[in-house]
Amino acid sequence: MKDIDTIKDLVDYTRLLYDRHLVHAEGGNTSIRIGNDVWITRTGAVLGRVTESDFTRLSLSGDVIAGEKPSKEFPMHLSFYKARPDVKAVIHIHPTYSIAYSTLLAEPCLDAVPAYSSALYRRAGQVPMIAYYPVGSKELHQAIEKLTPYFYSILMRQHGLTVATNNLSDALGIVEEIEQCCHIALLTNQKGYPITSEEKIEIDKLQGRSWPKSLN
Ligand SMILES: [Zn+2]
């Protein structure tokens, strides 16, 4: 697997999200970071049909270097890139089962998605959920910003899912694992047993990672 994604890879993976029925119409946005610049879908881009000209080049401070007006959700992407230098790709989409599952959870929490498979937990780790905020709002971006130093994947109530990692291939894999676990939660009426906390601790130990128990 390649270490560095190109703009062409970004086009290919963005279309792939549509092909795999993970996005509908204009719902979602994708980006990669190369050096200190970020390429992100322009506002109104249709993900299933994007070309290289649908991506806007931004500085990490959010200034447009080249291209059209970026997606209004660009601050979410930048907050991951700024908080985590290892993050090189961010996928934000509105997948059906993740949204459906999020509506069943009343409160924001730091461990929202049940790990029905060790593959999910190995790849995605712990996935928190934020409350519902209007798309593009300052409150939404602040809620995301609070979590980006600690998590790579965030479920957004009644909105969607954002996954940040070091390449597009892994980001897509994590998106699919989370979407599958949310689907399983719905299929089992949330009565299925996830993997045990001992197994999670073992996986976290092997991965050398930890999760905050609370955030203030
Ligand atoms: Zn969105």
Descriptive report:
With 216 residues, this protein is α+β, with helices and mostly antiparallel strands. 36% of the residues lie in helices and 17% in strands. It has a single domain (7-207), classed as Class II aldolase/adducin N-terminal domain (L-fuculose-1-phosphate Aldolase). The protein has helices at residues 7-19, 74-83, 96-102, 118-124, 138-147, 168-187, 197-207; strands at 28-34, 37-41, 55-59, 64-66, 89-93, 129-130, 153-156, 160-165. Strands 4-3-2-1-5-8-7-6 form an eight-stranded mixed beta sheet, sandwiched between helices. Bound molecules: zinc ion. Zinc ion binds next to loops.
Kindly, what is the distance between the CA atoms of the first and last residues, rounded to a whole number of angstroms? 39 Å
The spatial strand order of the largest sheet comes to 4-3-2-1-5-8-7-6
Number of domains: 1
Which structural class should the secondary elements be placed in? alpha+beta
CATH level 1 class label = Alpha Beta
Proper CATH architecture? 3-Layer(aba) Sandwich
Number of helices: 7
Q: Give the mean pLDDT.
A: 94
- List the helices and strands in order: HEEEEHEHHEHEEHH
The ligands bound in this entry are: zinc ion
Q: In percent terms, what proportion of residues is strand?
A: 15-25%
Q: Could you state the CATH homologous superfamily?
A: Class II aldolase/adducin N-terminal domain
Unreliable sequence segments: none
Largest sheet: 8 strands, mixed
Total number of strands: 8
Helical residues, percent:
25-40%
Which term fits the overall shape?
Answer: globular
* Radius of gyration based on Cα positions: 16 Å
**CATH fold name, please?**
L-fuculose-1-phosphate Aldolase
